Structure formats: structure tokens, C-alpha cells
Amino acid sequence: MSENELVGRLVAAGWKGSRDVALGPGDDAAVLRGGLVASTDMTVEGVHFRFDWVSAREVGFRAAAAALSDMAAMGARPVALLVSMALPGDPAVGVELQRGVRQAGDRVGVAVVGGDASRSPGPVVLDVAVLGRAAQVVLRSGAAPGHDLWVSGVLGGAAAAVAAWSAGARPPPAARERFVAPPNRVPLGRALAGEGLARSMIDLSDGLLADAHRIAAASGARVVVREEAVPVDPAVFDAKVPGASASGQASDGHLNLALTGGEDYELMFTSATGAADRVRALARELSVPVTRVGTVEPGAGVFLESGGERREVTGKIGHDHFATP
Ligand SMILES: [Mg+2]
């Protein structure tokens, strides 16, 4: 069973509609009537991180930054965090996790207002729930033919760190930093939503291509990504990547990390034709690089375009915790 199938079954088992809810499961966050936005994000030792890679404080920071990223993707202003954790032993680990969460909260001016703690017979589990407010949310379903496709920042750095660790190597410092400290894109997401520039939006948690599929599916449109335009994180070139050259050129291995590596927590959004100058001006104001990486067309699916050639992206792409090999 794929992660998407499992989530679909969980939604079917748990969700039956409610008059209090403006937007139920299926986007980066749910929206309640009155403009409250809510989402939750779980991190599991041995699945998302290992303690021989990162410290407990870094785990907490990263988990909260990832949760806050979903608020950015909705164009919402985060207002509170709730933290639940299961710990196998040393309570000091929990305190360090919590300190990391608070640091990420401090970065956006949001307090930790509650949570829960339990003993774990297995790995450390950390769940961060985030509440936000938005007058106008941006959904995954708003992409329309003619839109430009954009991403913020650079991609592949976090995946390069994981690839290095998994190969028993030490990741380049810049790649490690991308893994432990996802960027704060809340100001960009809010500004894009507030100015009506982003018509659809998602945060890149499972890789550009996998998340492009979500935009395409939710919008009933085709997303075309121009391979040459994808902003590969310079940190990727310093990492030892299978199939990568040492020349600093974007080889298939490097590009693959930028296209399918997860956990960059950058924003991907679409905007109407003619809005490109305003998008660039707003991004410059906020000192966040943005890159136009493709377009939206009538149809379905995700296509990669390179050197005038176009191929459909199918099969296993991006990160899937429940994929059977
Ligand atoms: Mg998300």
C-alpha cells in the first residue's frame, strides 16, 4: 500500500464532514469556519532521523519548522504550537526536543501552548500540531492552464545530507544545515496569498515531482517542469551522490535529488500569466529567491521537459513511507 492509499483510507475512516469545517482533509492544512487553520506533522526516530545524525534539539527544531511550513503553504499566519512526544527513556531528550521546537516557534513569533508526553517502548516519536489564521487561504487545487509554476529557494540539499548519512559519510555542512534547519517561508506564503499572487500552493515535503503531482491531481490540470530551470542547491554538488560527477555540473544524480529529494520545505506555487514581475518584486522584498520552473497546461499528470524533449513522470517518485519495494 502506498502512503497516498493509506492516507485515503484513513480519511475515509475518520472524516464525515462538519458544518464547522470550511476545508476538510486533503490539503496542507484543514480550515475551520472563522479562518482557523490546523495541521499536524509527525517525526519518528529511525524513519525521519537518527540520533547519530542530529541532536535532539535539531530534531525538535526541524519537526516544528516542517509543521510551520504547512501554514506557509496555506498562506496562513501561525498562532500556536502543540507538541506531543513519546520517549523510550531519558527525559532530558524530551526537554531538548522541546527547546528545539521553541526555537522554531520563536523564529515566527509563535508559542508552544500545550502538548502531551508518554513513555515509548520503541523509538522517539514527536508530533507537532500547528494552528494558524488566514483571511484567504491558498489551496492545491487552484492551478489552471496558463499559470506559471514557481518554487522558492534551492532544492535537494536536505536529501543530499540524508544520502550522505545513508552511505556512511559525513554530509557537507551546507547540506546538513538544510536538513536540520528548514527555511522559514511563512512571510513569503502570507505575502503571496495576501496579494492574490499564488493561485495554488504546496510546500515541498516529498520532492518537487511528487508535490507537483499533488497540485496536478487537485487542480485537474497538467504540470510541466522544465528540467534546466530547476534551482539545484549548491550544497548538492559537494555531496557524494551516486551517479554524480565531481565537475560541479548538474548530473542526473544531482538533478534527481532536487527533483525527488524530500524535505526541502520550500514553497511551490502557480501564478497567473503576467504576474511574474510582481512575484519577483515581492520575493526580492522578502529576500527569498524564486524561480519559474514550469507551466500549467490542460490535461493531467506531471511532465518533465528537457532540451525540447518531454516525458511523463510516472511510477515511484519522491518519498513514500509505505511503498512496498
Ligand atoms: Mg505540506
Structural key phrases:
alpha+beta, 60s Ribosomal Protein L30, Chain: A, Phosphoribosyl-aminoimidazole Synthetase, Chain A, domain 2, 7-stranded mixed sheet, 6-stranded mixed sheet, 13 strands, binds magnesium ion
Describe what you observe in this structure:
This protein has about 325 residues and is α+β, with helices and mostly antiparallel strands. The protein folds into 2 domains: about 5-135, 60s Ribosomal Protein L30, Chain: A (2-Layer Sandwich), CATH 3.30.1330; about 140-310, Phosphoribosyl-aminoimidazole Synthetase, Chain A, domain 2, CATH 3.90.650.10. It has helices at about 5-15, 55-75, 90-110, 155-165, 175-180, 185-195, 210-220, 235-240, 250-260, 275-285; strands spanning about 20-25, 30, 35-45, 75-85, 110-120, 125-135, 150, 200-205, 220-225, 265-270, 290-295, 300-305, 310. The strands form 2 sheets. A 7-stranded mixed beta sheet has the order 8-10-7-11-9-12-13. Strands 1-2-3-6-4-5 form a 6-stranded mixed beta sheet, with helices on one face. It is globular, with a radius of gyration of 19 Å. Bound molecules: magnesium ion.
Q: Could you provide a short overview of the structure?
A:
With 325 residues, this protein is an alpha+beta fold. 34% of the residues lie in helices and 25% in strands. It has two domains: 3-133, 2-Layer Sandwich (60s Ribosomal Protein L30, Chain: A); 140-312, PurM-like C-terminal domain (Phosphoribosyl-aminoimidazole Synthetase, Chain A, domain 2, Alpha-Beta Complex).
